[in-house]
Design goal:
- The protein has about 150 residues and is an alpha/beta fold.
- The protein has two domains: about 55 residues; about 60 residues, Transcription elongation factor, GreA/GreB, C-terminal domain (Chitinase A, domain 3, Roll).
- Helix content is about 30%, strand content about 25%.
- The protein has a five-stranded mixed sheet with strand order 5-4-3-7-6. The protein has a two-stranded parallel sheet with strand order 1-2.
- Helix 1 runs antiparallel to helix 2.
- About 20% of the residues are buried.
Length: about 150
């Protein structure tokens, strides 16, 4: 039979639903980041029994698979020393003359609006292991970043 005469169900034409992508590399977390992941797993598990809509249930299960994977692979990073820029450090610096303060955190905890920058972000990578007073290249400029202060 020709496909022109066959009635396909509407579901065959829906956009496929893919898994939430897992960031590459190690899943380093702060203590706060690990607590957040555990909370999301607990919330997801608690919500599943109350979901009756098939589409919403599939989305909730997909989210829960992501957070369970992130919990299983989480590596609690050691506290920073405060001597140089490390995972978990709060860094005050000048970027092209503008003063900023950020905290370097794990991928799932990152929130640039709250000045929480993932350790995998180019800005964080550029500053890793730097000490106060150092001037660093970034974005094609030789002296774009000056590290002012490092806190724990």
């Amino acid at each position: 039979m020709s496909v022109a005469f066959r009635r396909d169900s509407d579901e065959e034409h829906l956009e496929p639903k893919f898994e939430i992508p897992i960031p590459p590399g190690p899943n380093l977390v702060t203590a706060r980041g690990l607590a957040s992941i555990r909370s999301k797993v607990s919330e997801g598990e608690a919500a599943l029994p109350g979901i009756t809509n098939e589409v919403q249930l599939a989305a909730a299960k997909r989210d829960l698979r992501y957070w369970r994977t992130r919990q299983a692979t989480a590596q609690l990073a050691p506290p920073p020393s405060g001597k140089s820029v490390e995972f978990g450090s709060r860094v005050t610096f000048l970027l092209k003359g503008k003063r900023r303060t950020i905290t370097i955190v794990g991928d799932d905890e990152a929130d640039p609006k709250a000045d929480l920058i993932a350790f995998t972000a180019p800005l964080a990578k550029a500053m890793m292991q730097a000490e106060p007073g150092e001037i660093l290249p970034f974005g094609g400029e030789a002296d774009a970043i000056e590290i002012l202060e490092i806190a724990i």
